[in-house]
Amino acid sequence: MNSEFLFPIQKSVITRLALLAEGCLGRNIRIHTLENGFPDLEGVKIAIFGVQEDRNSENNFGCGENLHLIREKLYALFPGNWPLEIADLGNIHKGNTVSDTYFVVSETITALLKKNIIPVIIGGGQDITYINYRAYDDLEQTVNIAAVDSRFDLGNLEDELTSQSYLSKIIMQSPNNLFNYSNVGYQTYFNNQEEIALIDNLYFDAYRLGVSKELETVEPVFRNADIVSIDIGSVRQSEAPANNNASPNGFYGDEICAIARYAGISDKVSSFGIYEYNSKYDNNGQTAHLIAQMIWYFIEGVAFRVNDYPFSGKENYQKFTVLLENDDPLLFYKSNKSGRWWIEINLLSDNKYKRHALVPCTYKDYVAATNQVMPQKWYKAMRKLL
User: Of 303, 333, 367, which residue sits at a domain end?
Assistant: First the structure.
């Protein structure tokens, strides 16, 4: 990959690193430094990099700055029992134009994906989610996106790309490789009713904050995602003040860390981003510390992946058939490895959507089906395939 536009970690962070305990995370990952240069990526599973681009972040200018504060907290944490190689590639600086930055971000993500390395993106506005999505174009696959956000960020199609209009670009612009979009944690009063209706009419998934706090309910969302995008403004202001759009309501710190772990443990998630961190609103590094712990939990999740669907055959699952009145039977599968559940969508073998043939669900969905209640996940997936 082209490392020319990735700048090394600033010297003050490396100096502080020398004072930390030998077993800390910062002593056990490959770091892009001025002294040692760009790290060797052979065998690396996760690569962290920062994006110092804030020009299209709505009402949160400065969200690409001081990413070293997150790294100082992250490096000081102790790793778990992780058989993973991790690298920190440094930061992508602002280009002469926003488009220049976007190009470098997209090229970096694509290069990492082709090496089967999971990018972890920190900093910048959530408009970077659109660029993350576009980085999958060369992979020629359909993509599922899970966004943890209090807002849908639809905007208007004629709007410029910003942190609050990126979703309309993903939905409408070609090539359209989006199969499903899921929002976790939206707050109704931040989204007009027309947008809420549109999300439903497109057969996307949206979970209000109260429902999202039932974490087992939203776990399948992340198991089905390729891209996970977290707006740190989805966390309540008292827990994460470093965002000019922060709200009194939102997830608690332990809840957003559990969500990050769900994203990590998903066998399907191949890129992960935490956006909209604005250090000038942080109190005593509280948000930087929380983001560091979110990254820690994501890494732990990746370390404990069990390679369920789509990496193992159906012989590794228990099959359950549910007979519905006046409808075809529903087929559920329970993993022998993890105990997680899926519901099958019956597709032709040459269908381009075959990687979505098993839709993640919960045991509650299975029980509901036995009581003749059609799972919404199955219904929405089928509607998108018609």
Answer: 303
Distance CA 315, CA 317 (A): 5
Q: If you average pLDDT over every residue of the chain, what do you get?
A: 94
Is 1 a domain residue?
Answer: no
Q: Are 226 and 182 in contact (CB under 8 A)?
A: no
Is the predicted pLDDT of residue 136 greater than 80, yes or no?
Answer: yes
Enumerate the β-bridge partners of residue 333: 319, 342
- Flag whether 342 is in a domain: yes
CA geometry: angle at 137 spanning 135 and 141, to 5°? Answer: 120
pTM, rounded to two decimals? 0.96
- CA 239 to mean position of chain CA atoms: 20
Q: Looking at beta carbons, which pairs linking 205-210 to residues 24 or more positions away fall under 8 Å?
A: 205/180, 205/181, 205/377, 205/380, 206/152, 206/182, 207/182, 207/183, 209/150, 209/185, 209/249, 209/250, 209/251
Q: Is the pLDDT of residue 89 over 60?
A: yes
Strand extents, DSSP E, 29-177: 30-31, 46-51, 86-92, 118-122, 143-148
Angle between helices 286-303 and 253-265 (to 10 degrees): 30
pLDDT-based confidence at residue 328 (cuts at 50, 70, 90) = confident
pLDDT one-digit tens code per residue, 175-230:
999 999 999 999 999 999 999 999 999 999 999 999 999 999 999 999 999 999 99
Asked if 343 and 269 sit in the same domain, the reply is no
**H or E element: which one contains 198?**
helix 193-201
What tokens appear for 170 in the block? 């993903």
- End-of-domain residue from the set 272, 303, 334: 303
Phi, psi of 7 (to 5 degrees): -95, 145
Range of the domain at 264: 6-303
Task: Give the residue-averaged pLDDT of 308-333.
Answer: 85
Number of domains in the chain: 2
DSSP-assigned letters across all residues of 265-278: H-SS--EEEEE---
